[in-house]
Design a protein that fits this description.
single chain, about 575 residues, alpha+beta, seven-stranded antiparallel β-sheet, 19 helices, binds glycine
Length: about 575
């Protein structure tokens, strides 16, 4: 069955692998030295270790750490430090991250929450005007108001303290040096800067970094230095993340955020000093013969991925294949059902009660029974999951907007430890405010701007110290109790669909890991079916419209980076829609 559908998928998406029309192809980036295999449309195969990340320079430092016998967490530190330099629009020291970790020695799975927090001075009205109306999205994003307490530096340092095997300062050294010497601006960074000129030019220090004196944007291939970032990392190398949470870099961040004239923020030194990385149990769901595990609240990732897959457990997707609109009708409806629950119930459960039964198989079977054959459902309300021992609350519907951004990397080290980490400063270039050579996040706009809807409180409203709901879905799969795959993606709230699509492509339709990552996307969150422009997915427009869907053909810019694990080998996959590569040995 799986082979049959692999053949059908190849027929639909191209005989040499999925076809991608206008999509960017993977950069053919050779490693600087050594013989490491590199992903170029086929999965990279290796035996000892593997990394897949969104930028070749970042993947390369991760490879080097792993090649020196470093732990997956060592590689994570080096990769994140480098991403903050070479892919500054997506993640960095000014942002937050979620990390799912499998520890090979103890055979245990856990997760770490390095999500930003709302300042202690924030109120539910943070993104409302004097009349109680929601601000326009970018009026809220650009400036200090949207800046939450960064979590990434503390996550890096805490993970190294707990698991690291190589010297902390050595892990930061490659990014320190490259920031001082200059790196080659990638096509994606150059294009992103040019496209965001108006917002990026708003603050002179940010504009000075990304634009020349004549106002022209930094260009692809240009060498860009960042002495301030090099200095920040040097201080971190000497003193750990305390330079940000209790030291001079943090003081400068707070002063900058609070003093922005047109849109000041509330972040304070107390917010930084009290910030904590939280360890949380993984959230898992069974899908076919796999256990799919990821990040629970404040991320909606694992719960929403889990609900979609849990609903689809009630259908045989393998009988269809990726070219069949019937398959996408089921996937789209399962996704709409899950997003309805997400919009009502999912938020930072340290602050608001949440139903306990969101992944109960009986509940998801009831939700699956709402799906009608070959036909779009009308309105999709949230369900009535079991609250368990928690006192139930009537929540209003959330109106948070999440636009695509972010970065994901997957790492398997030589000892079998696995890191699946999604990392972000939220919007591309975050708040557009820079301090210490890095951009500060706008993560607080992942909260609902409204705090009440129809007289009911919204679970994901702003509250002091609370973490905004995320869609980030760093995932680790298990089969027969053994780790099988690490995967995740950027993409705002479409992250969830991108991860689900790749898992279904691999598990139900038998595509190999690289083909699964490359499969053209179809994503439905709230009713409209998004189809990936320039790909064979467009051929499903007419049949989906005939079922009653409104269809929107558009860029669907995932950045799936995955590693598959077997007894004998590792397979790495990188999404050709971005610039990433997989490297292994
Ligand atoms: N800001 C993107 C996310 O957390 O999902």
């Amino acid at each position: 069955m799986l082979l049959k559908h692999l053949a059908m998928a190849l027929a639909l998406f191209g005989s040499a692998g999925p076809a991608f029309g206008a999509l960017q192809q993977a950069d053919s980036v050779a490693p600087e030295s050594g013989s490491a295999p590199v992903a170029q449309g086929v999965a990279v195969q290796a035996e000892q270790f593997m990394i897949s990340a969104a930028n070749p320079l970042a993947a390369r430092v991760g490879y080097d750490v792993l090649n020196r016998g470093g732990h997956a967490m060592d590689a994570m530190v080096a990769v994140q430090a480098m991403l903050g330099l070479v892919e500054p629009q997506s993640s960095g020291l000014g942002g937050g991250a979620f990390l799912v970790y499998y520890d090979a020695a103890t055979k245990t799975l856990t997760t770490f929450d390095g999500r930003e927090t709302a300042p202690l001075n924030a109120t539910p009205e943070l993104f409302q005007n004097a009349q109680g109306e929601s601000l326009k999205f970018f009026d809220a994003v650009v400036g200090g108001r949207s800046v939450g307490t960064p979590g990434t530096p503390k996550l890096m340092h805490a993970m190294h303290t707990r698991y690291g095997e190589l010297d902390w300062s050595e892990l930061l050294a490659p990014a320190i040096e490259l920031a001082a010497e200059g790196f080659e601006v990638s096509p994606r960074l150059a294009a992103s800067v040019a496209a965001d000129k108006d917002r990026l030019s708003r603050y002179p220090d940010t504009a000075r970094y990304f634009f020349h004196a004549d106002g022209s944007p930094i260009a692809e291939g240009e060498i860009l230095t960042n002495a301030e970032y090099s200095q920040t990392l040097t201080l971190m190398a000497q003193n750990g993340s305390d330079v940000i949470y209790k030291g001079e870099i943090g003081k400068a961040i707070v002063a900058r955020v609070q003093s922005i004239e047109d849109n000041p923020g509330l972040l304070s030194e107390i917010d930084l000093a009290s910030y904590q990385v939280k360890e949380r149990p993984a959230v898992c769901v069974e899908y076919r013969q796999f256990e799919v595990c990821g990040m629970g609240p404040p991320s909606s990732g694992a719960l929403t991925v889990g609900q979609i897959l849990g609903v689809l457990n009630n259908f045989d997707l393998a009988q269809y294949g990726p070219e069949d609109p019937e398959a996408w009708q089921l996937i789209g409806e399962a996704s709409r059902l899950a997003f309805a629950d997400r919009g009502r119930y999912m938020a930072d459960s340290d602050f608001v009660p949440m139903p306990q039964g969101l992944l109960d198989s009986d509940y998801l079977a009831q939700r699956a029974a709402l799906i009608q054959p070959s036909k779009v459902m009308g309105a999709v309300p949230a369900g009535e999951p079991n609250w368990g021992k928690v006192v139930s609350v009537e929540y209003g519907l959330d109106d948070a907007i999440e636009l695509p951004s972010t970065s994901h990397f997957s790492i398997v080290d030589g000892a079998g430890n696995i890191v699946s980490m999604t990392t972000t400063i939220e919007n591309g270039f975050g708040s557009r405010v820079m301090s210490g050579g890095f951009l500060l996040n706008n993560e607080l706009t992942d909260f609902s701007f409204s705090s009440y809807k129809d007289g009911q409180p919204i679970a994901n409203r702003v509250e002091p110290g609370k973490r905004p709901r995320s869609s980030m879905s760093p995932t680790i799969l298990f089969r027969d109790g053994e780790p099988y795959m690490a995967i995740g993606s950027p993409g705002g709230s479409r992250i969830i669909g991108y991860v689900v699509n790749a898992l279904i492509a691999h598990i139900d339709w038998g595509l190999d890991i690289q083909q699964a990552v490359e499969l053209p996307h179809l994503v439905n969150r709230f009713g409209t079916y998004d189809l990936e422009a320039g790909t064979s997915a467009e051929s499903l427009q007419a049949p989906l419209e005939a079922m009653g869907y409104k269809v929107n053909v558009r860029d669907l810019n995932s950045g799936l980076h995955a590693v598959q694990i077997s007894d004998t080998k590792l397979l790495g996959a990188a999404d050709p829609r971005r610039e990433g590569i997989a490297l292994g040995e």
